[in-house]
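Recap from last week: sequence in, structure out.
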Amino acid sequence: MLGAMALSIFHPVIAEWFRSNVGTPTDVQAQAWPAIQSGGDVLIAAPTGSGRTFAAFLSCIDHLFKQALARELDDHTQVLYVSPLKALSNDIQKNLQQPLAEIGNAALSAGLLMPELRVLVRTGDTPMAERQQMLKRPPHILVTTPESLYILLTAEKSRRLLQTVRTVIVDEIHAVAPNKRGAHLALSLERLEALTLTKPQRIGLSATQRPIEAVAQFLVGNRVPLACTPSSRTAPCTIIDVGHQREMDLAVEVPKDELSAVATNAIWADIYDRVAELVRQHSSTLVFVNTRRLAERVSHFLEERLVDLGADAVAAHHGSLSRQIRLSAEERLKSGKTRVVVATASLELGIDIGAVDLVCQIGSPRAIATCLQRVGRAGHWIKAIPKGRLFAMTRDDLLECAALMRAIRTGALDRIAVPPAPLDILAQQLVAAAATQTWEEDDLFNLCRRADSYRALARSDFDQVLRMLTDGIATNRGRGMAYLFHDRINRRIKGRRGARLAAITSGGAIPDTANYAVVAEPEGTVVGSVDEDFAVESLAGDIMLLGNTSWRIKGIEMGKVRVEDAQGAPPNIPF
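Predicted structure tokens:
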């Protein structure tokens, strides 16, 4: 009954499409839709697989649909979706295109003529031709990452693209709130609000978070008058919290040998055998590990044990692999060609990788939210029961896994703490903001204070960072790296020549590691990347593993490792 009432707020074509293609709305959708339609900021906290992403998007699609029917829809970006993972961005685009096409067909069947609703992705992986096309003909829904949003806000042409944004959806908000990426995103959201013609509605989506009020505050920023004390504050926005607890089939597995402080080769062999046995018992399995090196190692040994299941039965998935290899692994798992994918956090968040039956975690996941998120990959659809197995490799792992099981059963969660005012991130964003326009000193300070991470930013700290960016840094060869002009009489700030380029090329809070591209010969295709240390210490003739494939190193040059297929030869150096 509640679901039928919830759908009544949408256009009849969209309501009918939802009933016939999706079914009855979930609790989170029935609660979220009226709150989003009211136009206020909303935080949706619900378990993985509860339909929370669609809870946010359907209201936006309905608004665009009604505009299109009224002939009021032009080529302007109105919805901005920000996700912390590139893979999640690609997945959302794919999963939106099908409903948009189906809704368009349903409208046509009902005799309604309307323009196409378009969705595009803009991340670091987006080809240059697509970026140019996006500027010429902006999509109605733009899907991006926090780092790409920062670049879009700083580059001159793309700023015009964002002026018309009316809704911002921040997905997996708990993944960024407790770190510097979150502080960076919070400032980007304030810069976006200063740029847009109307104040955008903010919608936050997350699976696992406590305290919920802190995350809501992070989403909407510091909008409370300074006279308010923290205890007198009410919730900063509408919070829809349907709880994080789901029925789960969760167990800890230990090897036959006695556990010690470190995992022996016998224990590893036992774990590989057990995981291989579980893979055979299930149609699709996801194995999570904590490092990229371990992902390559586990996938290599599992492939040896599952050779009878076919050449593509095992795949590795992590950030060092090229985009094509990662997408190929995701597609093969969805289609059933690949039976098991060994992944790091690259597949942890809400990416749709089809129906996964089982999740295995090798070693402790180190956090309750991470464990729930990873196990939630199995049964990532409504009313499914996720199945997960935690493999303890050492005595420490066993203690952590036991504590995790107890916490999950009692409903406990990690507490999120937002880092207070990181000044390195502030310096980046000040240069980026001043490169785009001239600012009044107080206006720029107030903009920074509106971001939740900078609510307690002292004016003295702001002035010191400003002085450093204006005066530059003294070296033996004189002063350098002065990015701003600061008119102290008229209290105005603007960027120097080169400030925009410096901001665009040095932005973000993800540590910049020197990577060497791995290029397969003779095709010349990039198959992934390796750390500088690894590349420098390798020699021609060495065999390495990348993407669960053996590669023989032919030569190493500046920024590149040239390799050829080693035809399955065993690696003599670890990843």
